[in-house]
């Protein structure tokens, strides 16, 4: 059985579009349509609902998707493992990194890794931890930084860093007179927050639910310089990791009461082959990163 149609089928299932699937795969749309029609004819089943522009999987298609993903993953793993019998002279690492760590924690690690392994290609995908975790589970990433407490059964993780989540305020904000900030007081202020799907936002939303408070979000952005600027000018308060705050930012940070710690790890799929390039990256991060155990 030719597995290429299965790749096409998976792309259609994920994008819910023949056009988007073709663009993602880098092939002409008619080729995708013909491959799926042939796959359906070979199986004697209808796999995709084609109602107007709405694309969805039939019950048979949903069952095939589960098997198709396993077949493609196993095939890719086998080809990768066979190719690596030649040694670590080449390879690719696809790693997902949240924007805050991508901007302030990983740059020196990535540059040092590239210097040590110049023939390995690094593909860094930036996004929210939830989005990156889904991409990892779907096989679109080899490794990803995730919040350790949300680790699903299908993933393994290596401890990366432990950082405190700090209330971030302008220098003249009334909170500057306090040593610690109670969550209730935090949620009484207008907030500058990351968009949904980012680990900071998920922690804040979880905290608000625990406090039975509705966050007053005045600004939503994933741009850290913009978060800093809005907070500096007193239009809201935010939460950031200590690594993000620089001396000339004209910002003050305070701990929550009680403090909130984030345990971040770098994860991979349990059931997939971890290439030599990815293992080298994991070992390098473990050696050059810093995991701070603080209470």
From TrEMBL:
InterPro entries listed in its UniProt record: HTH-type_LysR_regulators, LysR_HTH_N, LysR_subst-bd, WH-like_DNA-bd_sf, WH_DNA-bd_sf
PROSITE patterns: HTH_LYSR (PS50931)
Superkingdom, taxonomy of origin: Bacteria
Entry GO terms, CC: cytosol
Keywords of the record: DNA-binding, Transcription, Transcription regulation
GO molecular function: DNA binding; DNA-binding transcription factor activity
Ranges of residues in domain HTH lysR-type: 1-58
One Pfam family linked to the record: HTH_1
Keyword Transcription: yes
Database matches in Gene3D superfamilies: 3.40.190.290, Winged helix-like DNA-binding domain superfamily/Winged helix DNA-binding domain
Family from the record: Belongs to the LysR transcriptional regulatory family.
Entry protein name: Transcriptional regulator
Source species: Marinomonas rhizomae
């Amino acid at each position: 059985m030719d597995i290429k149609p299965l790749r096409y089928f998976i792309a259609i299932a994920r994008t819910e579009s023949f056009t988007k699937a073709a663009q993602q795969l880098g092939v002409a749309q008619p080729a995708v349509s013909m491959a799926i029609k042939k796959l359906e004819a070979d199986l004697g089943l209808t796999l995709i609902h084609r109602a107007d522009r709405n694309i969805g999987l039939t019950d048979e298609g949903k069952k095939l998707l589960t098997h198709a993903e396993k077949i493609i993953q196993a095939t890719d793993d086998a080809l990768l493992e066979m190719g690596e019998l030649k040694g670590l002279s080449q390879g690719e690492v696809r790693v997902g990194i949240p924007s805050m760590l991508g901007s302030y924690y990983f740059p020196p690690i990535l540059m040092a890794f590239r210097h040590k392994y110049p023939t390995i290609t690094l593909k860094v995908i930036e996004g929210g931890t939830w989005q990156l975790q889904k991409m990892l589970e779907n096989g679109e990433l080899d490794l990803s930084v995730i919040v350790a407490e949300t680790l699903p059964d299908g993933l393994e993780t290596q401890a990366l860093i432990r950082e405190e989540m700090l209330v971030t305020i302008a220098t003249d904000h009334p909170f500057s007179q306090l040593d610690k900030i109670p969550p209730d007081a935090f949620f009484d202020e207008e907030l500058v927050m990351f968009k949904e799907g980012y680990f900071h936002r998920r922690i804040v939303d979880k905290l608000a639910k625990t406090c039975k408070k509705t966050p007053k979000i005045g600004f939503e952005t994933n741009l850290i310089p913009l978060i800093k600027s809005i907070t500096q000018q007193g239009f809201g308060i935010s939460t950031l990791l200590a690594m993000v705050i620089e001396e000339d930012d004209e910002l003050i940070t305070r701990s929550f009461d009680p403090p909130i710690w984030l345990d971040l790890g770098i994860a991979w799929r349990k059931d997939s082959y971890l290439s030599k390039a990815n293992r080298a990256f994991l070992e390098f991060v473990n050696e050059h990163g810093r995991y701070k155990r603080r209470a």
